[in-house]
Design a protein that fits this description.
alpha+beta, five-stranded antiparallel β-sheet
Amino acid sequence: MNIEKGQKVWIVADFCGTTETEVISVGRKYITVKAWQLRFDKDTFRQVNGTGSGAALILDLDEYKRKYEMQKIKQKLYRYNWSNLDDETTEKVYKIMKDIL
């Protein structure tokens, strides 16, 4: 992925949530952003000089949010107690999912 100096990006981390920032330099191995002068690995987008709270660099915030929401939905489906469904609802769910089962 082509990353350029001046490009708007986001940092996602436990210590700051989601923070918008700007790329200030792109080197052979690292990307440095304006916020806190953090450096990220150019291949993995993970923080290089972390202090125990790893941060990640996000290039497309909308795509990140969509993937995060899908992950939450999948976890809800995984944890749901399917034996609680009545017969009618079970049939409805089965009709929706029969092509993937």
